[in-house]
Amino acid sequence: MNEQIAAPNIALENPRGGNRLLALLDSRYTPPVFITLILLAGHLSFGMLESYQKTLLAIAASIATELVLSRFFMGKWPHLASAYITGISVGILVRSPAYWPFALGAMISITSKYVLRYKGRHLWNPSNLGISALLFLAGDIVASLSIQWGNFLLPLLVIWALGAVIIWRLRRFHITGTYVVFFLLFAVLRSWITGSPVLSEISPITGPEYQLFIFFMITDPKTTVKSRRGQCAVAFAVALVEMVMRLDRVIYAPFYALFFVGPIALLVEMWWQSRRVQVAAATA
After folding, report:
1. Cystine design at 58: which of 23, 90, 203, 231 (Cβ 3.0–4.6 Å)?
2. Are strands 117-118 and 94-95 parallel, antiparallel or unpaired?
3. Closest Cα partner for 114 from 154, 75, 59?
4. pTM, full prediction
């Protein structure tokens, strides 16, 4: 769903070589293990997958695309944890009677990392872009996971507990926490504006779509701004834009909100950093 492989910083803090290597391996494989647990918990409890074959197709297409494009553009073989996360995310979140959206969504997601770049950075969260593109361009045959989660609390509590620990360890809990707090506040505001029950406005955040969104998409190290304060501001902006979209009955509001807010925040950050460099050079 993203490239949550940014915890090599954690590994570098440990002065012992063996422990440093172990921490690095953990940082790379913990997110894939976590998203696999989300998949297993949801499917074994509620059968939420479209099919094993379609999910495996999305994973295979994502990994194959990553291998080819990394070798072509970068001249090296990539670490495949990110591609696995992207593929399994597409497999979980996409709903379609056809097979091709699962492969195409994964390929669009991975390709965006190598094509849609500015100053060496890709601007969109890969899986968010791929899924948003499918929902917008092929909405007559593609939908997103929504009601298949049921109302059983045990899988939800397990996933939230694991997710909180993992995101805390990766030093990105402030992003998830900011988004959740403002989602709840805006849900109360939406309820007041529309007259709908508060619980109906809050309930979407208990589903797997939002769990993947808050633990993986909005915390993606490669597509979030660098400063802690800026990351919290972006999480707030995503929650705000999503609320406005929901008032207009946009079904896939969280995906579209991140699609618009994330790249704009990165571009603003890059412009501001460039301006600071120019000012410093002129002063010198």
Report:
1. 90
2. unpaired
3. 75
4. 0.82
Answer yes or no: CATH 1.25.40 is held by domain 8-283. no
How far, CA to CA in Å, does 60 sit from each of 14, 81, 84, 107? 35, 12, 8, 10
Spell out the domain ranges in the chain.
Answer: 8-283
List the pLDDT tens digit at each of the 284 positions of the chain. 555 544 433 333 444 444 554 444 456 677 777 777 766 666 666 666 677 889 999 999 999 999 999 999 988 999 888 899 899 889 888 989 999 999 999 999 999 999 998 888 889 999 999 999 999 999 899 988 765 445 556 667 767 777 787 788 888 999 999 999 999 999 999 999 999 999 888 888 877 678 878 888 899 888 899 999 999 999 999 999 999 999 988 888 999 999 999 999 999 999 998 888 888 878 87
SS3 state of residue 48: coil
Phi–psi pair at 249, nearest 5 degrees: 60, 35
- In angstroms, the CA 73 to CA 76 distance is 8
Residue whose structure tokens are 């699962």: 102
Q: How many CB atoms lie within 10 A of CB 151?
A: 9
Rg, C-alpha atoms of the chain: 19
Residues 6+ apart with CB under 8 A from 221: 2, 3, 4, 5, 6, 170, 172
Query: Alpha helix (H) ranges present in 70-172?
Result: 81-93, 100-115, 126-137, 153-169
CB atoms within 10 A of CB 17: 8
